[in-house]
Amino acid sequence: MTDPIVGARIWLPEAALQGLIDQLRASGYEVVGPRVADGAVTLVEVTSISEMPRGVRDEQEPGKYRLTVIEGAGLFDHVVGPHSLKPYLFPPRTTVLEVLKIRDSWDARVPEPPRPKRAVIGVRSCDLHALAIQDRVFLGGQHRDPEYAARREGLFLIAVNCSRSAPTCFCVSMNTGPKVDGGADLVLTELNTGFVVEVGTEKGGEVLRGLDIRESTLAEFAEATEVPQRAASQQTRRINLATVHDTLINNLEHPRWEDVAKRCLSCANCTMVCPTCFCSTVNEVTDLAGDVTTRERVWESCFNEEHSWTGSGAAHPTTKSRYRQWLTHKLATWVDQFGSSGCVGCGRCITWCPVGIDITEEVAAIEAKGGVA
Amino acid sequence: MTALPVSPWRVSMTTIRAVKAETPGVTTYDLSFDDPAAGYSFLPGQFNMLYLPGIGESAISMSSDAAEPGKLRHTVRAVGNVTRAMERLLTGDKIGVRGPFGTSWPVEQSRGNDVIVAAGGLGLAPLRPAIYHLIRHRSSYGRVTVLYGARSPADLLYTDEYEAWHSAGLDVQVTVDVGSADWQGSIGFVTTLLSRVPLEPTRTDVFTCGPEVMMRFIASGAVNRGIAAGRVFVSLERNMNCAVGLCGHCQFGSEFVCKDGPVFPFDRVRRLMHVENI
Amino acid sequence: MPPRLAVFKFASCDGCQLSLLACEDELLAVAEKVEIAYFLEAGPRDTTGMYDIGLVEGSVTTPHDAERIREVRAQCKYLVTIGACATSGGIQALRNWGDVDEFARQVYAHPEYLKTLATSTAIADHVKVDFELRGCPVNKHQLVELISALLWGRTPRVARYSVCVECKRRQVVCVAVARGVACLGPVTQAGCEVICPAYARECFGCFGPKEQPNLLSLGVRYRDDGHDPQHLTRLVRSFNAYSAEFRNFDPANQKES
To answer: Which residues of A touch B121 (CB under 8 A)?
Structure first.
């Protein structure tokens, strides 16, 4: 019997992927994976591989996303869709404080966060890097987020090496993919009849035990190695990671900010689909009787005026100032704050911008005609 | 399962012990913690998130003596939802507190130096704990000058304390933008006071708080008089929501104003302070 | 003394008032905390004294309306407009681009008995408004938030940002990007709980313009994607056609006039 120890390379026949899902579910995990819904490959609960998107390819370009079905293609022929891991760790809406009126005072209680056990199948390298970035934001500082910590602890990650890139992908230039370089319990590479599985953690090896597995052959491993290489070779967009920080910081008054503000809708879609954007706001939600109030945290965006509101007006009153805040934060000041770029090159902000604004193009335009700040 | 981090949203209840009307729209609240075991202490220049259940939170600097943390005091201008609702509160009412948060005036680092405290309007409130500290440890500092400007005589804060500050060995200079019939003091901007005050640039630290444009002029004025930008400290205002660097609202370039500030050495933020809407 | 609430109707379909009645679970709690003093749709018609909160539905379309809204304003301490008619003039503001006399001749046998204005306008064009709730109709949770907030003593929390923010919070797949339909979500104010996109339909702009909407950029994009500019004109010339940010936009010509 094959021993799936950490570092082992295992062959998992396609049918046995169902066994893996069953095993995880039997261990108490909710299993989340790719599933076609509303015209996109979404990331929602799956119970069977029959629900997964066989042969589905996503055609992506700035402001456009369409699905096509290719005969004979695999379960993971798509790349990243509109969803990411983000809502599973940093929920769009959550209660951070419950307050009850008791006589003349208030009893304020922090609710115990849920501790879900959740396994996600099909996580891509860019999203693992995004997770590592959010780990630094929510868990890396003096003040840490308990709900994120609770959800992070119960997360089981089954990554997949991308077999193709969308035209919007630029992870190669961000050093974040497409080959998975850690951070997952298991890493799958899809071949014709099954998967080469790299065991990333003991927890990962554990769920493989009892499945129809064997050690992968050298030929299978060699073929698997080529899969993400092929995806990497397809990428056309890029950001110059070495220079982008200074390019942006030294061009805070560049005319391109005015130019992009004419196109930008300030609709916040880019920040909402971004797997690393972490802005939130806490609102007061009250009952009618006057006895109960809860403090509810929701996803927010630097593109919303109220985000930067102070007693003396908004710090970012214009679309120009908001786009500049977003782009400089994502690609430059994030590095100063957290030691890495805030961008993983997943391209979601390009695809899901209703008017197709392309951050790689905006950076290139500033780079090409660098003014003086 | 490992223990989860302590929630940054945890709030402690306090009781209002006194309410004092200062200037039009500005009120000082004295608070005491309902749970004395809270073990609360703060540094001059730090802020709390004040919470009114059902209304929301607002970031307000402490304006009281940090050496007496049990007598917490906040001076508040009624401008937003929370601060306007505070105007309706009376002695005995409850206010939630999270804090203290943020950086402080470098009073320890300034020991042995001359200190200029330059405040505009409500900006005197976050500086008052620094003034109390300088008075409490008066012999540890050289010349201490308080320069304070407000729009009109009626807008001057803490007028009943200037005499005590003066008696404690501080040079207190006050100015208003627009005088009144019975105003016999200086008329003009606080920046003008700075340009006239005698100073030894190599041994002077400047703490300034007020409207951003005023701080920019004070800081630039100090630098023009030969004080190194790293010896000038400004206190910035941005939208604080979580106060612990997790919500993103208060960003100012690379800085989270809530945890990297609000008090910054001018050399660290100088460039950004000259970029519009950054 | 509980605050006295009044509900007034101007030119409208009554749908927003009905949203208040549709707050079935919350209505009892509202009735316990608020004296519903004047609400013809529901019965009460106490016309004595001042009202603490006045909810106004509908737009001003007649000389009589224009007079009456001033009286209503004088009777209400805190006046809230509810719905697209009251906040922007409503669907009936399409008359503002047409010839009302001509419409009247087409519709009525004796148009000479009509006393109507040439325009349908928002309440705020006539009197000071303290707060507005958008929507066609208003969202019942926003109505409850309005009343709850006023009871607790804070400004009601109503988003000014785009519908897209709520779509993404609900993880709804973008219909504009994934289906290529012309959706007004990116220029429309949130608050509807994304009813249409959640059912794979485009946003029709019921909540009116978001803060600083960029209609020009969105219009150019949709035109370049092959959408008929006339279709865009019809989308914008709808419930909130006469709102300040929508009224001057002419997608057919791709310019702001």
So the answer is: none
User: Are C130 and C63 in a shared domain?
Assistant: yes
Please check whether residue C9 lies inside any domain of the structure: yes
pLDDT tens column, C136-192: 999 999 999 999 999 999 999 999 999 999 999 999 999 999 999 999 999 999 999
Question: Counting Cβ atoms within 10 Å, is residue A219 exposed (0-12), middle (13-18) or buried (19+)?
Answer: exposed
- CA distance to partner chain A, nearest, from residue B237 (Å): 8
Q: Is C153 on the interface with B (CB under 8 A)?
A: yes
Same domain membership, residue C242 and residue C189: yes
Mutation site, B251, B257, B259, interface A, largest A CB count within 10 A? B251
Which of the other chains make 3 or more beta carbon contacts under 8 angstroms with chain C? Answer: A, B
Give dist(CA A182, CA A178) in Å, integer.
12
State phi, psi for B20 to the nearest 5 degrees: -130, 125
Range of the domain at C212: 163-256
* Residues of chain B neighbouring C155 (CB-CB closer than 8 A): 81
Output the CA–CA distances (angstroms, integers) from residue B126 to B37, B63, B118, B209, C62, in the order listed: 25, 5, 11, 7, 56
C245: phi then psi, degrees, rounded to nearest 5? -80, -25
pLDDT of C42 > 90? The answer is: no
Distance between C103 CA and the closest CA of chain B, angstroms: 47
Structural domain contains residue C107:
yes
Query: How is residue B12 annotated by DSSP?
Result: E
Percent of chain C with pLDDT over 90: 83
Q: Which chains touch B (3 or more CB pairs under 8 A)?
A: A, C
The pTM is what? 0.96
Q: Å from C151 to nearest chain B CA?
A: 10
Q: Which of A269, A281, A288, A292 to mutate to test the interface with C (most CBs of C within 10 A)?
A: A288
My answer on whether C142 and C52 are in the same domain is yes
**Distance, first Cα to last Cα, chain C:** 51
Q: Which residues partner with B14 through β-bridges?
A: B33, B95
Cα of C169 vs its chain's centroid, Å:
23
- The pLDDT tens digits for B120-145 are 999 999 999 999 999 999 999 999 99
Domain termination residue (choose one: C152, C187, C202): C152
Domain edges within chain A: 9-93+111-233, 244-279+302-368
In degrees, rounded to 5, the angle at the alpha carbon of residue A118 between the alpha carbons of residues A113 and A119 is 160
Q: What is the mean pLDDT of residues A318-345?
A: 98
Mutation pick from A106, A250, A253, A291 vs chain B, by most beta carbons of B within 10 Å, is A106
CATH of the domain at C73: 3.40.50.700
Q: Considering only CA atoms, which of C129, C127, C101 is closest in space to residue C115?
A: C101
Q: Is the pLDDT of residue C230 over 90?
A: no
Is B231's pLDDT higher than 90?
yes
In a domain, C157, yes or no: no
**In chain B, what are the domains?**
12-101 (2.40.30.10), 114-273 (3.40.50.80)
Nearest residue of C to residue B87, measured between CA atoms: C153
Contact C154 B88 (CB under 8 A): no
C136 with C243, same domain?
no
Do C19 and C73 share a domain, yes or no?
yes
Say which of A65, A268, A355 has its CB closest to residue C162.
A268
Boundary residue ending a domain (C152, C186, C207): C152
Q: What is the mean pLDDT of residues A106-134?
A: 97
The answer on C139 and C228 residing in a single domain is no
- Assign residue A347 a region (left: φ > 0; alpha: ψ between -120 and 50; beta: otherwise): left
Number of domains in chain C: 2
Same domain for C220 and C148, yes or no, is no
B7, B94, B277: residue with CB nearest A318: B277
Identify whether C158 is part of a domain.
Answer: no
- Minimum distance, in Å, between the CA of residue B106 and any CA atom of chain A: 21
Distance from the B163 Cα atom to the nearest Cα atom in chain A, whole angstroms:
31
